[in-house]
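Table S5 (text form). Sequence records supplied for joint modeling of the two-component complex.
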Amino acid sequence: MWLNIKENNMDTTLAEKIDFLKKAILELKGKSPDTITEDTKLLDIGIDSLDSVELQMYYEDVTGKQTADPTTPVTTVKHLINLMY
Amino acid sequence: MIVHTIKDLSNYYVINLLSDGLRNMTEVRLLENYHPDNKDNPANLFYILKHGRFTIGNYYVLENNGEYAGSAGWNRLDDTTALALVRAYIPLKFRTTYNMAKFILPKIIEESKDHQSIWITCNHYNKTIYDAFTNLSNGKSAGMFNQWPDNYKKFKPVGTKIVNNVLQYVAEYKRE
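The corresponding structure-token record, covering 261 residues in total, follows.
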């Protein structure tokens, strides 16, 4: 595994989650934004609906965990990482 | 949102809208198939519009407040099958709004009704969408795909097919 994701979700810090996301974006899109915060809008960093599906599948491949099905629109980094961890 | 329907290059207003919009695209791997400067390439959108790909079919161009907001078409593959979301593109600004599913896909499903099946084809660049169809049909969590409009979920994965001489992953909508 290229990034150590802790088994216990409660132990994973926000910084680790954002770091995971940045590395995943780099892996999938070939470049990663310099700065991401919880409030960053996905579209502002070039993540569209297809990319979101791709990130979800990548996450599931890497961690062996399934993401939750979102019940509200996923438009920010916070929405995305809340589903992934 | 205005949905323009064209079959060829004869509607100057729509072709200019399309051309101006696609001239701004930045995705290098898509330039060959979409950028108007590559109109002499047989795979290019403007080439296939000129050479009759949509004679049986249509190409739809979305206009939002005078601005190009995306486009896609459908065309006949054979007597029973239509290809959907052909040469589909949405500018970054309009992504995650699902305009393709809201405004274009319903038209395609309706207007291709003489064909028993509709195929959405994916290549290795967008195979993710095929994988999402597969997860959904296997009863796995669809995750982010769950947010996509329901009319995408009518399509079921049917494996790979040779389409226009290229191996493609195919998701099929079969009419009852």
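Note: The helical segments of chain A are 14-29, 49-63, 77-84.
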